[in-house]
Amino acid sequence: MTTATTEPKQRDKPRRTAFISAPLSTNTSGIRRILQRQGIEAFTADQIVMPGSRLSDILQEAIGRADVVVAIIDSGVTSNVFFELGFAQALKKRTLILVDADVDPPFIADVGATFLRTKLDNTQAIEVGISQLLKVPHHGTSAAVKQTNAIGNLADQLLAEVRGNLGPSPEMKLEDVLLRAIRASGITASSEQAGPDTGVDIALWSEELEPWIRNPLFIELRMHIHAKEELTKTVRQLQRTMKEATVVWALLVYLRADFDVWKEVSVPQILPISIENLLESMRAKSFGDVIRELRNQRVHGVS
After folding, report:
1. Among candidates 235, 226, 237, 245, which has minimal Cα distance to 266?
2. 43, 109, 169, 215: which has the fewest C-beta neighbours closer than 10 Å?
3. How far is CA 201 from the centre of its chain?
4. Residues near 33 by beta carbon (within 8 Å), at least 6 away in sequence
5. In 10 A of CB 187, how many CB atoms?
6. Which of 187, 240, 184, 193 lies closest to 219, judged by CA?
7. Measured between alpha carbons, how far is 213 from 217 in angstroms, rounded to an integer?
8. What is the set of domains in the chain, with CATH numbers?
9. Considering the entire predicted model, what is its pTM?
10. Which residue, among 107, 24, 12, 115, has the nearest Cα to 71 in the 3D structure?
């Protein structure tokens, strides 16, 4: 007589959820499909059944249920989106704002959330943005933000590489050194290829940069800045890129310069530093502390 055995049925893993905030005229089906591919079930406030409740109560319930919030700002009326973003920030929800590339909304940089400026039919860019958002550690309302750390003796090794022969592809080698330092400092989400649409070498996200350095932080790399005219051109190009992407702060990292770059860059939101000084600073300080000190020097003249 044969006894049949039955494998215990595995419980379905709970799906993550995303609250979508968008103008009423916006078709969100494409965003929903992208989220679905990431294993995220999307919903909106009007799917919450709370008869007789105030809108504020419905929004608090809906956003409170969500694991992430995705807000869309396009050419439609966006007053409801900013209202809902206020709830998301108050509830400390992981939030991504998708801003249509043809729209220049006021104060978007002051919302305090990660945002991506792109055409809303650019599914590849949006999917990358959502993936990056999910990779960044999020600690909700109670746990402390995980701090980045100093890289210690690794600084010596990286400095030796920078000061030695960079090989046949020095730009790529310099980028590799910088990325290794960033990863060793504890930043888990960085983009080696920020993409041709951004015009920068690296874009990274870190909760430790909030709220004074808004995510993402762009990093532009230069090998040798020979003349002040060359620096001016680089800064103007970086400013245009930051404006188009609605990015507030950028780090300009260079290998060598024939003059004091810090004194010549007049844009407060662009932080210039040589890669040697950056690596030396990261020997004993976290990446977040180094960037915060650079920011304070630019804004207040103090570290």
Report:
1. 235
2. 169
3. 14
4. none
5. 24
6. 193
7. 7
8. 16-135 (3.40.50.450), 154-300 (3.40.1350)
9. 0.60
10. 115
